[in-house]
Structure formats: structure tokens, C-alpha cells
Amino acid sequence: MSPSLRTLSERLSSTDGSTYREGSILLSDRSAAFRLGVRAILNLYNHYNSANFVASTEATSSEQTLNIAVSQQPSLILLDSHLAGSWERTLNLLIQLQQLAPALNILLTADYLEPQVIFEGMQAGATGCITRDNVATELFTAIDTILSNKIYLSETALKDFFMLFQVQARD
């Protein structure tokens, strides 16, 4: 078991090993390979831990994401920052999701987390941001953090977010 899986496993397990975590996840991403990879990571994690995180549904468009999110109310949405073709359109989708279902937990995924994307995404209601390259090592920490009603930003994203926040506060 990888160190990141072991660390999260230790955090989720109580001293008697009875802690059980579960949740449904909507994979909202334009890449079939990425969605397949996330499913494999979730299956591996569930196999080695007392958890049941299920990628219950997939969406490849804004319309599908809105319909599924409102009708199924998943525990978490992994939302591709360019699902709608551009960040601006995906930002509008994020705003719509928050208006229609404000309790949704949304983890933004991106090839590269630009500070402006992090800042605007968090303002619009995202509960976390993660780069696609780090999904294998950070996904479970992100899920655990978000489902514990906290915000998740990787260390790099956190630094970028606060640098932009400071610049915006000065202006």
C-alpha cells in the first residue's frame, strides 16, 4: 500500500478499526481515461480500507452534470475545470450548481491550477481544488477533508491562492 493510502487509512480508522466512510461521487470530466483512472483509484482504496467511495455516475457535459447533481445529490462532484470548454463556462456551471444545490461538495480538477481559477472557484462555492497529476496521491485526503466539512487545497494551490488573495486585497 502506498504511503498516502496508508496515511489516510490510519486517519480514517479508529483504534478498533471500526470506522467506515462512504459516499457517492459524480465524475464530471471530459476525459474517459481520467474517469477510468479515478474509478480504479477508488476501487483500490476501497479494497485496502474500510471505506466505500463509489463513482456512481459520470457526466461529460454541463447539462449532464447539472441534471445528475440535482437529481442524485452525490456526496462529492469531481468537476473538470474545463468541462464546459473553457474555465469561464465551467465557472458559470459551478455557480449554477451552487444556486440549485448549495449543499453540494465540489472538488475542482485541473491540468494546472492557475491562481485565478482557484480564487474564482472558491468564491463560486468549490470546496477544494486538485491538479489532475496529483489525483492518485491527494484524492483521498481531499475527499476526507471535504466530507469532514472542510476546504481542501493542496500545498501548492494554497500558496498560489493566498498570493493572489493578497494581491487582490491590495488593489
Describe the structure in brief.
By secondary structure, this protein is of the alpha/beta class.
Q: Secondary-structure map with pairings?
A:
Blueprint: H1 3-12, E1 21-28, H2 32-48, E2 51-59, H3 62-72, E3 76-80, H4 87-100, E4 106-110, H5 115-123, E5 128-131, H6 135-147, E6 152-153, H7 155-170
Parallel strand pairs: 1-2, 1-3, 3-4, 4-5, 5-6
Helix pairs in contact: 1-6, 3-4, 5-7
What does this structure look like?
It is a single chain. A six-stranded parallel β-sheet has the order 2-1-3-4-5-6, sandwiched between helices. The longest helix has 17 residues, at 32-48. The radius of gyration is 16 Å and the shape is globular. β5 (128-131), α6 and β6 form a beta-alpha-beta unit. Residues 1-19 have low confidence and may be disordered. The chain is built from seven helices and six strands; from the N terminus they run αβαβαβαβαβαβα. α1 runs parallel beside α6 (135-147), α3 (62-72) packs parallel to α4 and α5 crosses α7. The protein starts with a helix and ends with a helix. The protein has helices at 3-12, 32-48, 62-72, 87-100, 115-123, 135-147, 155-170, and strands at 21-28, 51-59, 76-80, 106-110, 128-131, 152-153. With 171 residues, the protein is α/β, with parallel strands linked by helices.
